[in-house]
Amino acid sequence: MNAFARLPAGPAAVPLQLLLPSGPPRARPLAATRRERYRAHLQAVVDIAAALAPGTPTAPAARVAETVSDTASLLPGRLCALCGGGCCTRGSDHAYLGAPTLRRFMDAHPGMSPEEVVAAYLDRVTHKTQTGSCINHTRTGCSLPRDMRSDTCNDYACDSLAQVQAAPREQVVLVVRRKQDQWRRDRADLDNAVNGAAVLSETGVRRMRVG
Ligand code: SF4
Ligand code: SF4
User: Is 148 in the pocket of ligand 2 (CB under 6 A)?
Assistant: First the structure.
């Protein structure tokens, strides 16, 4: 069936045409050295967070609630799933986690000791992670729930995601995806061929053959 055969009538029926980067295609077992670097980062940040006054971050609850509200439409999640986390590749072994995020988490869990907070984050790390990406980046997405993620992660939207977030729910989106991630997509020396295409709507995802 033609991919556009069941489009709704009206302005949103004109597909929004977006270009996406790609997240890393492969996963590998997590090296012990990476886990140790993450543990050391968490410990250092928790020590700073513990010295901050409770409630130090500005309106974190509102920010997380906003993000949850954004996901009332299924389109943003579908877009990021098709991309596969093309912006997570710089998360490395720090996952953008800083003292304000950890302070917010500690405020929400006042019974937890600093050691338990570190353990809670380490518990979310899986044995296999996406090659060349954030330590929390798995084949199925981020292993941290939103309330444990950094404000950077919760607030970030690439241009394509921002357009989808601003679009009406009935919007149909035609997506073309290229090989490189969000940060290397303009490198002329790298192969950035099209490696996927799809039509996204509130009712589903229709992948299209490329090449
Ligand atoms: S915000 Fe953009 S780059 Fe990041 S996962 Fe979503 S679509 Fe990909
Ligand atoms: S913590 Fe999650 S959302 Fe943030 S960079 Fe890592 S995988 Fe991506």
Answer: no
Establish whether residue 200 lines the binding site of ligand 1, counting it when its CB lies within 6 angstroms of any ligand atom. Answer: no
Backbone angles phi and psi of 72, in degrees to 5: -60, -35
DSSP class per residue in 20-44: E----S-EEEPPHHHHHHHHHHHHH
Query: What's 53's DSSP letter?
Result: P
Report how far residue 85's alpha carbon sits from residue 139's, in angstroms, rounded to the nearest whole number.
9
Give CA–CA dist 86/184, Å, rounded.
Answer: 10
Regions of the chain where pLDDT drops below 50: 1-5, 7, 58-68, 70-71
- The residue whose C-alpha atom lies closest to atom 2 belonging to ligand 1 is 158
Kindly identify the ligand whose nearest atom is closest to the C-alpha of 130.
2
Q: Which of 120, 145, 125 is nearest to 31 (CA)?
A: 125
pLDDT, tens only, 78-121: 999 999 999 999 999 999 999 999 999 999 999 999 999 999 99
